[in-house]
Amino acid sequence: MTARPVPPSERPSDPDALHYPRKVLFVAGAGRSGTSTMAGLMSILGMHVPQPEVSADDTNPKGFGEPQWVVENHDRLLKEAVVQVSDSRPAAWFETGRVATREPERIRASQWLEQHLAVSSELVVKDPRLSWFLGLWRVAAIRTGATPVFATMLRPPAEVVGSKQAYYANRLGSAHLAASWLNMLLHTERATRESLSGTVPGGARAFVRYGDLLDDWTRTTMAVAETLQLQHVLHADSEAIRDGHRFVDPGLRRMNHSLSDLALPPRLHELVEETWRELNKLADPGGDVASVHQCLDQLREGYVELYEESAAISASSVVAAQHALRSAAPPPGAPGGPGPRGVDRVPHGVRAMIPPSVRRGLRRAAGRARP
Predict the structure, then answer these.
(1) Integer Cα distance of 140 and 145 in angstroms
(2) For residues 29 and 184, what is the distance between their CA atoms, to the nearest angstrom?
(3) In what order do the strands lie in the sheet with 147-154?
(4) How far is 43 from 330, CA to CA, in rounded Å?
(5) Is 237 within 8 Å of 11 (Cβ atoms)?
(6) Is 67 helix (H, G, I), strand (E, B) or coil?
(7) Does 275 map to a domain?
(8) How many domains does the chain have?
(9) What residues pair up with 126 in beta bridges, in sequence order?
């Protein structure tokens, strides 16, 4: 029988840990890119995941390492901003920023952090929705006297897309998922760049390849801990290291997709490929430099241009979808029960002509988003 990993709270405490400076590690990145593995390892090595956590399920049997409160709070904010977790719209960043800069939200987040920093001086906060609210959490951490640091997970985009389609039964096409990966990573990189400016003493960031974590988790994790000065991890004992070996499964790399398998539109394929190449440089020692930042800025501008062109070209699909829903809706005050919903009365052939992302947006606007 495999021994149960001993939670950090049940291990003999390190007397020096009482004097570790306050720090919050935010694990960012697209969903299915290894964020759960990173958060789980940090927890095993002594950092504290605020409780209660999201329960493990078939999509992630070893656990998510996600505080339940954070997930629920992010869901609430995304709903208010009308933004999807995997949203490909560059404008979505403005919408989430608009709600996250409100003072009541900053107070709420800082009070929550303060509560858990009383349990441990070093926290790890992870959620696939996190990148949308990095500014909110940076401010909240600073208000508690904690240093915010960031670890962004990198996994080949084709593997991320394949994993989402396999585990989440995602009916959105590969092009949408690849575009949302591009949107998420380019803006996450830009949002965490402030950590290099020196405005927050001790602030830092790290980029971690998921493949490196699976190949040699001890070396990769310790390099992150050194860069971000995570004291619990740097002082982890041998028992925690053994638990880490039991936790990491090299077989987690189950996807074997290449970018060519996704059959993306040529310009999108090019942007995804170039972005992946530049992001990989950030994961190399000494690779987080101005020249790479400049390339990523240009790629982000290129993606915004591509999205705006695509939206302009597909505007007729949005108009057609709106007309289809209006024509299918029953007249106001019609006798009888409510009957089929408008969208359900649209012939399948008409619905099939509407891009999935547009159908999803219209359902959400009508308050009928699918779970």
Answers:
(1) 9
(2) 7
(3) 122-126, 23-28, 147-154, 204-209
(4) 54
(5) yes
(6) strand
(7) no
(8) 1
(9) 27
User: What pLDDT score was predicted for residue 323?
Assistant: 82
Angstrom distance (rounded) from CA 156 to CA 210: 9
Q: What is the rounded CA–CA span in Å between residue 144 and residue 52?
A: 21
Residues 6 or more apart from 186 whose CB is under 8 A from it? Answer: 275, 296, 299, 300, 303
Q: Does residue 23 belong to any structural domain of this protein?
A: yes
Beta-sheet pairing, 122-126 with 23-28: parallel
d(CA 213, CA 47): 18
Q: What pairing do the DSSP bridges indicate for beta strands 147-154 and 122-126?
A: unpaired
Q: What pTM was computed for the model?
A: 0.82
The DSSP call for residue 318 is H
The phi and psi torsions of 122 (rounded to 5 degrees) equal: -130, 115
Asked which of 234-248, 262-276, 304-318, 341-355 is least confident by mean pLDDT, the reply is: 341-355
CA distance 150 to 27: 6
Range of the domain at 28: 16-261
C-alpha of 312 from chain center: 28
Does some domain include residue 217?
A: yes
For residue 127, CA distances in Å to 66, 85, 134 come to 6, 10, 11
Distances (CA, A) of 93 to 56, 124, 186, 187, 294: 29, 23, 11, 8, 20
298 in a structural domain: no
pLDDT tens, position by position, 156-187: 999 999 887 776 655 668 999 999 999 999 99
Domain of residue 186, CATH code: 3.40.50
Task: Give the tens place of pLDDT for each residue, 73-122.
Answer: 999 999 999 999 999 999 999 999 999 999 999 999 999 999 999 999 99
Are 276 and 159 spatial neighbours (Cβ–Cβ below 8 Å)? no
- Burial (CB count within 10 angstroms: exposed 0-12, middle 13-18, buried 19+), residue 33: buried
Cα–Cα–Cα angle for 142, 38, 6, rounded to 5 degrees: 100
